[in-house]
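Private note to self, pasted from the team thread so I don't lose it. Backbone tokens:
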């Protein structure tokens, strides 16, 4: 073979090898590109899975937090209700204790007063001299002005003790010993015919016009009998004080009648009480 005829063959071989190399390079590049794509796809899948996992964990955390918050709120509400119930029960118990204490004090005072009243009487019914006085009404007519009284005789004594003296001309009771006194009055009234409703005041005062007790009696229109009691403690009366009672009213009292045997007033010494 001649040199001239062999050159095209060599050129052809070289071109063929170049094509093969180019195809191989292209195939390798394609493989590398596919690997990069596959690696990028896997990375994206991992990122997506990680994101889903994070979202799931966040949802679980929020759910648990909401449950804890609701549980705390329910516990706080139950605790508040328990505290409120305890406060209400305590308040009721305190009020009940105060009511019992007040009732016991009132009962003790009433029993002590009854004991003192009973101690003023002798076994035969006579009043002990000195410490007490009782006067009953002598005029059944109910009208404004000074009331009239009288003592009640019991055997050798009367209902006016030696520490008192009654002056019928002035209708006044004189105190012969200074001290504190318990003053009480009881009125019983009945209606004869078509009495007007209204009220009357009975006022006790001393000789210096010092008011010691004021008692208001309501008079109904239905003609029912009326019984009324008033009392008070006079902190101090000087020796020689004179007490009298006045009726004052703006109502027409002409048909009202005072019960004589059940209407009167009395007083007794409460400090330095003497027994004889």
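Design output:
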């Amino acid at each position: 073979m001649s040199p001239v005829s062999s050159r095209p063959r060599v050129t052809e071989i070289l071109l063929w090898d170049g094509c093969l190399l180019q195809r191989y390079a292209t195939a390798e590049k394609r493989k590398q590109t596919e690997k990069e794509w596959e690696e990028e796809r896997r990375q994206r899948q991992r990122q997506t899975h990680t994101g889903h996992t994070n979202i799931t964990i966040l949802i679980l955390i929020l759910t648990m937090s909401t449950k804890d918050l609701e549980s705390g709120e329910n516990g706080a509400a139950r605790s508040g209700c328990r505290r409120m119930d305890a406060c209400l029960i305590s308040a009721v118990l305190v009020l009940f204790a105060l009511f019992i204490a007040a009732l016991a004090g009132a009962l003790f005072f009433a029993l002590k007063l009854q004991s003192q009243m009973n101690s003023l009487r002798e076994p035969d019914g006579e009043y002990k001299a000195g410490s007490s006085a009782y006067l009953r009404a002598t005029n059944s007519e109910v009208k404004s002005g000074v009331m009239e009284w009288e003592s009640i005789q019991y055997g050798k004594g009367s209902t006016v003790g030696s520490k008192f003296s009654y002056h019928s001309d002035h209708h006044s009771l004189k105190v012969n010993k200074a001290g504190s006194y318990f003053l009480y009055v009881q009125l019983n009234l009945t209606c004869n015919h078509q009495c007007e409703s209204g009220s009357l005041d009975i006022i006790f005062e001393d000789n210096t016009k010092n008011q010691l007790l004021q008692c208001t009696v309501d008079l109904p229109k239905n003609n029912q009998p009326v019984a009324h009691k008033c009392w008070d403690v006079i902190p101090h009366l000087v020796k020689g004080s004179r007490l009298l009672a006045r009726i004052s009213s703006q109502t027409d009292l002409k048909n009202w009648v005072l019960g004589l045997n059940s209407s009167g007033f009395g007083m007794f010494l409460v400090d330095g009480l003497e027994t004889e």
